[in-house]
Amino acid sequence: MKKLIRFTLNGSEVSAEVPSHKMLLEVLRETFELTGPKEGCGQGECGACTVLVDGLSVNSCLYPAFEVDGKEVTTVEGLIGEGNKLDPIQEAFVEHGGVQCGFCTPGMIMSAKALLEENPRPTEDEIKKGISGNLCRCTGYVQIVESIKKAAQKRGS
Ligand code: FES
Ligand code: FES
Q: Which residues, 6+ apart, have CB-to-CB distance to 30 below 8 Å?
């Protein structure tokens, strides 16, 4: 069974006809050609596919595409501002070594975004908890936590 869904994707109104078994990750990557969200485990365990739905972080590999009907979806591509300006979180990852191979980075950044929207001044423990669903196989956690700390400072300044 297919269903027509309409939703806001990175600020634009979009629609798609999606089969009932499709997960949001597949629709984002295949229909909308947004390759920021990655498929790591495909089972809700690595966070590489993290996007925001109505401001909350979700694992898009497990989120049925049907369910975004009428909602607002943001991927890492949607954080880029006018004139291709990076979001302060993206800038901080670049400046403070939060990116190694980059596979986990879009998911980490989206989890950080959800965290900082809810808690603009997180403690180190709160940052670690905020990204606890995101795995980095390059084990760059020290720089990732530092990047999110710096991003919080940057956003607050
Ligand atoms: S690909 Fe979705 S959590 Fe790993
Ligand atoms: S930077 Fe390589 S998986 Fe995190």
A: none
